[in-house]
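Inputs:
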Amino acid sequence: MDFRDTPDEAAFRAGLRQWLTDTLPAGWADRTPAPGRWDEAFTREWTRKLYDAGYVGLTWPKEYGGGGAPHTHQGIYLEESARVGAPDHIGVIGLGMAGPTIIAWGTDEQKKRYLPPLLAGEEVWCQGFSEPGSGSDLAGARTRAELDGDEWVVNGQKVWSSYAHIADWCILVVRTDPSASKHAGLSYLLVDMHTPGVEVRPLRQITGDPEFNEVFFTDVRVPRDSMLGQPGEGWNVAMTTLLHERGTLGFALTAALERQVLNLVKLAREVGADDPVVRDQIAQQWIDLQALRFTNYRSLTALQKTGVPGPEGSVAKLHWSETNQRLTKLALSLQGLASQLDGDGAVWDGYWQYQQLRSRGNTIEAGTSEVLRNIIAERVVGLPRSR
Amino acid sequence: MDFAFSSEQEQLRASVRDYLRDRYGDERVVALAESDAGWDPSSWRELADMGWLDPSLGLLEHAVIAEESAYALLPAPWFATVALAWPLLDEQLRDAVAAGERSVTLARHGSVTADAGGDTLTGVATLVPDLTSVTDVLVVADGGVYAVEATPDVVVPRSTMDRTRRLGELRLDRTPARRLDASFGPEVRRRSLALASCEAVGVAQRALDLAAAYTKTREQFGRVIGTYQAVSHKVADIFVALQLGRSLAYWAAWAVSEDDPQADVAVSAAKSAATEGAVLACEYAIQAHGGIGFTYEHVLHRYYKRAQWLEAFEGYGRDHRAAVAAAILDSEGAVA
């Protein structure tokens, strides 16, 4: 057991730290965070710099443009980025979900075709899993694809699809065999979002921002071979995606929470936090952050030693989401009635108001807390299935 | 970055677990807890023979033993000797402990002072863990540490909720004492906090195992109760609390063993989260058991009482969070 960087990790960290200092705008790390309005042009520019410096796809295979580095490097990248509040790569869904699934299931041609532009940020991906009638119950998906010559013809509707409004490609779960049982009738398509018949409508969230979208498919024609796995294997392919969504997420969640705890401490120092109850609650957030960090390290160590993440990894998203909700509410409570302002004159121009409202989605997106508790109870603790 | 015990440490864990499973089933633990002595003094030599008291063990080995012995609720002054007195022992006591001849606890609350001449002590030390089980007690008095024999004339037992870890009162009246070349400092306290956190992990793991086993088999309304989400989600919450506490407890043990700059906040984080997590685990496990979990007959209350003992030991969670708050709010510089 040793939590210190190895010489290799220390060298990577030092180089990255220097690069971040040199590359981010002057004074970036000390700025007051801004509300959630997202700057697409800046994000695209940042993505290009990250890619050129070799910090994208650190753990991906070298032959497809990745870095072939150990998982700890990706962890260090996320830690250091969080420490200075560096922006994300534009391809969040691509890097976290589409890419790993293509690596696991794709043909050699598919990997060569999709992975390099994904890493470079030249092609942005979105996810088409949830539907109005099937959210947590993915196997109930009704969007269908019918074979017509050498093309699949897709009709249906997806929802809660982040980045769809700027996406070039979509990982899409469709029903190709209506006569098969729920899971067996599904397939997994890679769909060009610029195909005629694809319509994206933004959905405003509780924050007022259109961060995610509805996507309508009307007679959308998709080449027959633009599929991961075989027809009917969609469920298994989708499970790979969700495994990556929930499995390699630990570092990203730790990084996000670390940034938020730093922000909370900054806010507390600004507004004054002498109340022992407030101090107790702030300390609890810090402890919850460390618990997430070291649980993630434990899971990563298991992954490196055995090839499978440990069972402790399943708690990361559940713990993070509930902690982030408590933290952002605490931040609002430090502001008194001014906590109700979200524009001119608001603390930090409304940063915390946005964050608090946004955090309500954390226990819903990427597996609701109810689904995650089912998974822990059934697959980890071994209780009988609840449904 | 490597967050795993070594294969030697894992072998130690397996051997500790095997011994405790063979020798300390629930029935025997309960019988010992209900006995006057509260433990089996002849077992001390067995622990020594297995190397649990060997001076060569490091804190990570102690962490493994602490977790496993709490899982079995081993009634023995191992925690007192190793988590409390250990770093203060002189060579004479250390050798006697390693041979299984002596066991030692630590008394640091009360009004004991050294008499003129310095070779006797007078006063009362309160809330001394396992005082009735040990052969010797180290007393913190006047800034020094003194060794005193824990003979019946100076030991007053106090009825304690956790009957496997009783507190006692030490009453000294010009009692012969030997001053040791040691002082009670923060590093001694850090050790005890890290190991108390590891014990809490063992308690929470047992609470989870009991809750899982029961909810997998108990039927109501024609179904196994583990299929009801109102029940299974509480079991999932036990698992979450256990894993978070375990991560922090192991981090704390490592940080203390390496004298890491974050050792102080690490032990406070671990002590607060792991002991509160153990209490929550036991409370949810009791609830999942329904009426039987509330009986004296069931073993759960014994774990619940140990969890509460650990929560109360060396500061409740809020005391440790106050220390964390001071570290992250009152000084400029890196907080995360």
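The beta strands of chain A are 125-128, 144-148, 151-162, 169-175, 186-192, 198-203, 212-223, 227-228. Flag for discussion at group meeting.
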